Structure formats: structure tokens, C-alpha cells
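Entry 12.
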Amino acid sequence: MGNVYKVGDSAGWTTGVDYEKWASSHTFKVGDKIVFNYDPEKHDVVEVSQQDYNICNSNSPISRYNSGNDELEIITPGTFYYICSYSNMCEQEKQKVAIKIDKEKSTPSPPFPTNNDTNGRVCMRTKSGAAAASPFSFSTHSLIGLLVSCGLALYLH
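Predicted 3D structure (C-alpha cells):
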């Protein structure tokens, strides 16, 4: 069981927060949980590529969250990029965060099945019930729920 990090601490996922500073003050590892709390009428959370993160482009999202309370469990190391796609929040207000999961400080990832179409990410269920490709998963899902909700095939070796 890992640590729980609320993005932006008490402010949450909103404007007026230095998310680069926030992220650099934490060491994230596999098993930790990342929580995005925000007003879903004013903000969302969109996972994007590094290139899209750099230019605040949400037109080709990897995954999109809009519940206002998205809790994601880290299941693989790497750097993952999140922006708010609402009315220039990323460009003007700098509402974006890069979360780096340190490979050296992480325990091995759990043996979840992968699908080549998601570039090694696994499928997860959002609190609203929508399925999306992500490097995170909700802690309440089971392997069976993962397979049913996402339609992934298991390849036994």
C-alpha cells in the first residue's frame, strides 16, 4: 500500500497553483495514489503525450476524467502528463502537471495484462464507470472487473 497524494494539496486541481513545484516536491512510486479534486463544471483532467503537454493540446487524449474526484493508483513507472482542457486553463493558467514515477524507488508493477494498442498502459475504470487507457487503476477493481470493463484478453504464458 502506497501514499496518497492530492494534486495541488489543499487547493486541489484548479488555477493559481504551481503544479511543477508541487510535483517536484514529491517522490511518486508504484502503489501510490494520485487524487485530482476539482469542480467538474470548470475543470477536467486529460492525460496527454509529452508533446501535447508542452503545447497544451487536448485534441488527442490518452485518457480523460471529469468526475471532479478522480483517484488513480500508480501501477507502472514513467512520466505521465495531465492538463485541464477547459477554456485555456492550461495555456494561460498553467493548469498542468507532469507526474514522474521513479523506477528505482518503485517496487515491481503488479502483473496486469497489457494491450499493445495502449502502449503498455492497462485499462482502468473511472468512478463514473467509463473505461480508459491509463498507467493508473482504481484500487477497488479486480482483475475480472478489469477484463470485463475493458474487454482485454489475457495471454497466459
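Annotation: Residues 108-133, 136-157 have pLDDT under 50 and may be disordered. Residues 143-150 form the longest helix (8 residues).
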